[in-house]
Design goal:
It is a single chain. The chain is of the alpha/beta class. It has two domains: 146 residues, NAD(P)-binding Rossmann-like Domain (Rossmann fold); 101 residues, N-(1-d-carboxylethyl)-l-norvaline Dehydrogenase, domain 2 (Orthogonal Bundle), CATH 1.10.1040.10. 50% of the residues lie in helices and 10% in strands. It has twelve helices and seven strands. The protein has a five-stranded mixed β-sheet, with helices on both faces. A two-stranded antiparallel ribbon has the order 6-7. Strand 4, helix 6 and strand 5 form a beta-alpha-beta unit.
């Protein structure tokens, strides 16, 4: 994603020097060399994994940059990290912005939605870069100065929580269509939803694209990771006493996808058998398989 962002910024006429551990894509041999090659005052955009990798990068840049430089964390950092990063750099008179970025692998062509947190002066200074990255059209449709430091990553966290819920709804609809004998062409039904319906979206377009390649989606395992933002969104819902049942259920569904055989559902099956004599499936050579017994 960082590589594609670099190319989009360059296409807008800006000089960009990038550092990456991959020698095939990097412009500089080290972070120090990258800083040396940038003319002051510098603007440095970080796109590395959230957590310790980002914190270490910010700390290293704090030692390499000069007063008046500006750092933007465009990764999916937790918003609570931003205050620490900003304070660390402020002690060296270096500015800091946090920027939630959405656009994925398609951003180079279509542009990126940007949600920024930080001081207005720093945001204004970075606007030429933000304008290069955001989609064409009115600025407010692809860019928001969300608030103070931390607001950009908070906004992106909620964005990704919503994304969890939307994806889960499409996935459940797909499974229902697959299970229904009356439906003979599931991909055709989902493709028909792309025009004129209230459920049309870019996510739906991506599902159609996946179905074009694999109509039954059986080339993949149903194992789904989560990168953190869904968990953080649910934690915030708890902290703020805001009901978020859809996002919460979508997160827990991802956890369920990682279990070959759910201990909780084995307990449910056992209870149904105990109180009602309902049929159970005895475990065979692999957990969860075997014959049905009453």
């Amino acid at each position: 994603m960082g590589f594609n962002m670099r190319e989009r910024i360059r296409a807008a006429g800006h000089d960009v020097v990038g550092f990456d551990r991959d020698p095939d894509v990097t412009d500089a041999a080290s972070l120090a060399e990258m800083v040396e090659r940038l003319a002051a005052p510098r603007l440095v955009w970080i796109m590395v994994p959230a957590g310790d990798p980002t914190r270490r990068t910010v700390a290293e840049l704090g030692e390499l940059l000069s007063a008046g430089d500006l750092v933007i964390d465009g990764g999916n950092s937790r918003f609570t990290d931003d205050t620490h990063n900003a304070e660390l750099l402020a002690g060296r008179k270096i500015g800091y912005l946090d920027c939630g970025v959405s656009g994925g692998v398609w951003g180079r062509e279509n542009g990126y939605a940007l949600m920024v947190g930080g001081a207005a002066d720093d945001v204004e200074r970075a606007m030429p870069v933000f304008d290069a990255l955001r989609p064409e059209g009115p600025r407010e449709e692809g860019f928001a100065h969300a608030g103070a430091v931390g607001a950009g990553h908070y906004a992106k966290m909620i964005h990704n929580g919503i994304e969890y819920g939307l994806m889960q709804a499409y996935a459940e609809g797909f499974e229902l269509l697959e299970a229904a004998d009356v439906i003979k062409d599931v991909p055709a039904v989902i493709k028909a939803w792309q025009r004129g319906t209230v459920v049309r979206s870019w996510l739906l377009d991506l599902l159609v694209r996946a179905l074009d390649h694999d109509p039954e989606l059986d080339d993949l395992r149903g194992y789904v990771d989560d990168s953190g933002e869904g968990r953080w969104t649910v934690e915030e819902a708890i902290n703020l006493a805001v009901p978020a049942p859809v996002i919460s259920a979508a997160l827990f569904s991802r956890f369920r996808s990682r279990q070959d055989d759910s201990p909780a559902m084995r307990a449910v099956a056992s209870l149904r058998n105990q109180f009602g004599g309902h049929a159970v499936h005895q475990a065979g050579p692999t957990s969860g398989s075997g014959s049905t017994q009453g």
